[in-house]
Amino acid sequence: MYKIKIDTTNRYRKTVELVNVIGSEEMQLAAVTGDIDIVATIRDILEDKGITIENIGEFESNPGPGSFTGLKIGSSIANVLNWALGRKSIKELTFPDYGREPNISPRKK
Hints:
Gcp-like_dom, 4 strands, hydrolase, ATPase_NBD, peptidase activity, alpha+beta
């Protein structure tokens, strides 16, 4: 089974990984890190590896703690894809663990 792992704990340094899961072992097939578009990166990785989205058994996001906005983005993408592809029911979806109350401030330049 293939799995997409999304880490958005740092809002401006996100990671998308494609892993092959065999039993309890995970083998990384591809990874992209940076200030990236998560959905476009998933598409690009799948196209590059010749894998369709239907072949992904699970979309997993790092629950945190981390950036409030980043965690919302990662969990939203993973939850929508898991639900839309029938991988998880509404009751099985995951929510971020912010680790603290949100402290939302403008991006520093």
